[in-house]
Amino acid sequence: MKRLFPSRPGAKLAGVAALVLLTAFAAGCATLEQKERELTFRVVKSDAGWYSGLPAQVQDLYLPVSSAPDAPRINAWWWPDDDPGAPVTYYLHGARWNLTGHLRRIEQLRGFGFSVLAIDYRGFGKSDGELPSEATVYEDARAGWEWLVARQPDPARRFIYGHSLGGAVAIDLAARLAGSGVQARGLIVESTFTTLADIAAEMTFRWLPTDLILTQKFDSIAKIRKVAMPVLVVHGVDDRFVPARFSEALYAAAPTPKKLLLIENGSHNNSMWTGNGAYRQALIDLFGHDAVPQPGARIARAGREGSLLP
After folding, report:
1. Closest CA to 114 of 306, 292, 295, 301
2. Angle made by CA atoms 40, 45, 46, in degrees to the nearest 5
3. What pLDDT, on a 0 to 100 scale, did the predictor assign at position 300?
4. Alpha-carbon distance 129 to 117, whole Å?
5. How far is CA 269 from the centre of its chain?
6. What is the structure's pLDDT at 255?
7. For residue 118, what are the β-bridge partners?
8. Relative to the CA of 187, which of 39, 87, 108, 207 has its CA 20 to 30 Å away?
9. Distances from the Cα of 87 to the Cαs of 112, 148, 154, in angstroms?
10. What's the pLDDT band for 290 if we cut at 50, 70, 90?
11. CA-CA distance, 82 to 95, in Å (whole number)?
């Protein structure tokens, strides 16, 4: 996600907090929650300005969020690696931009050797619905995960990835899977935060009782303690929107095995690009060489097996 809330650094959440307080008194809880959701997700349904189309290998999917005949559908992209045995990353994006604004980061995960499944929550892009909520994005994430599990039944080949607000969605999914045995090789969260209330307090007035005001909790600090898989936490040191100390707190709370990667000169959106080599090495250090193919390994293996020959 680009930004959680409006763009001026000193006033991003000041407007949110003020609006929350005013609407709470003036219009009641229903309007309060709607305004809060609008400001939290900041949905742009149209394509990102820099998007020029899907790569030819990407499959455009529509997945129902339940088994009900009239269930809403979410739009998803499935981008399989050339190697059918490649590990798979489940990509959960943050606020504002739909999938078209995330193609660059998805391409980078592909470059690491992963197949990628990415979803748009309800209200984003071509998915059904108008305004997401914390509850609906969690439901949508579970629906996409069920599709992925059917496609890749080996838990050792599955990863969960979340960026910014999507990190909170990814942590929720990983925590829910904890009671079901081994469900994934690992969890990767980037540029994310502890709770929505914490980041609201950080970017506005510390005296505001944001934990009581906000209805959308995204309480990742509590949930990450329940995660039963290795956790890689990544953050750009120069992130101006979500301070890196939030990822440090998440790392401290996460169970082992875990790894924290702070990217020098990394911003909220470019850490995977800026710290490409360190990012890849962190994946290998935590998850192993078998989970993260080395550059050129696919070509060398294919050459040995003759699969690139006519």
Report:
1. 292
2. 135
3. 38
4. 20
5. 12
6. 97
7. 77, 91
8. 39
9. 10, 11, 9
10. confident
11. 30
Q: How confident is the model at residue 45 (pLDDT cuts 50, 70, 90)?
A: confident
CB 87 within 8 A of CB 158: yes
- Which pLDDT score, from 0 to 100, does residue 211 have? 63
What residue spans of the chain are helical by DSSP H? 14-26, 29-41, 103-111, 134-151, 165-177, 196-203, 210-213, 220-223, 245-253, 271-274, 276-287, 297-305
CA atoms of 140 and 135, how far apart (whole Å):
9
pLDDT at position 15 = 52
Burial (CB count <10 Å: 0-12, 13-18, 19+), residue 56: exposed
Domains in the chain with CATH codes: 14-288+296-305 (3.40.50.1820)
Contact 200, 181 (CB under 8 A): no
pLDDT of 138 above 80 = yes
Bridge partners of 261, per DSSP, are 234
Helices and strands (H, E) in the chain, number of each type: 12, 8
The span from the CA of 222 to the CA of 231, in Å, is 15
Helix (H, G, I), strand (E, B) or coil at 19: helix
Task: Specify the higher pLDDT residue, 213 or 268.
Answer: 268
> Tell me, what amino acid is at 38?
E
Between residues 119 and 216, which one has the greater pLDDT?
119
- The C-alpha angle 72, 168, 115, rounded to 5 degrees, equals 70
**Cβ contacts of 133 within 8 Å, gap of 6 or more:** 37, 216
Q: Is 285 helix (H, G, I), strand (E, B) or coil?
A: helix
